[in-house]
Amino acid sequence: MSENIHELSEDELARLIGNAQKSLRDRQIAKRKQIVAQIKELAASIGYSAELTDISPGQASGSTRKGIKVAIKYRDPDNPRHQWTGRGMQPTWLRELLGQGRSLDEFSVA
After folding, report:
1. What residues does each domain of the chain span?
2. What is the Cα–Cα distance from 23 to 16, expressed in whole angstroms?
3. DSSP for residue 55
4. What pTM did the predictor assign?
5. Predicted pLDDT of residue 23
6. 3-class secondary structure, 83
7. For residue 74, how many other CB atoms are within 10 A of its CB?
């Protein structure tokens, strides 16, 4: 089969890849449906009902904090574009100003 793949045009390869991806998705969906049916059957066998409405891929629980904006805590009064949330490493502009003997409280927003 690998020799045949090398002889295919780009369009034929793209079509082959698309068909393979669709086939894989279809198999995964069928497998999920089969597993859901087994879960429901097992639950019923011990007197429970399992209501699994949607178990689409990508629903794994992850961090719910992803993408949450954090309020600015420090800002350079001379250049308002220089800001820092107080998380992570101190930015260069702040380290330089603190190195000049200034206090962190001078740059506090609130």
Report:
1. 2-45, 74-107
2. 10
3. -
4. 0.44
5. 96
6. strand
7. 20
75: tokens are 């800002």
User: How many residues belong to the chain?
Assistant: 110
- Using CA atoms, how far residue 70 sits from 67, 87, 104, in Å, is 9, 9, 19
Identity (one letter) of the amino acid at 6? H
Report pLDDT for 107: 93
Residues 6+ apart with CB under 8 A from 28: 57
**Other CB atoms closer than 10 Å to residue 84's CB: what's the count?**
19
Amino acid code (one letter) for 97: L
pLDDT tops 70 at residue 62: no
Residue found by looking up tokens 């019923």 in the block: 44
Which amino acid type is present at position 1? M
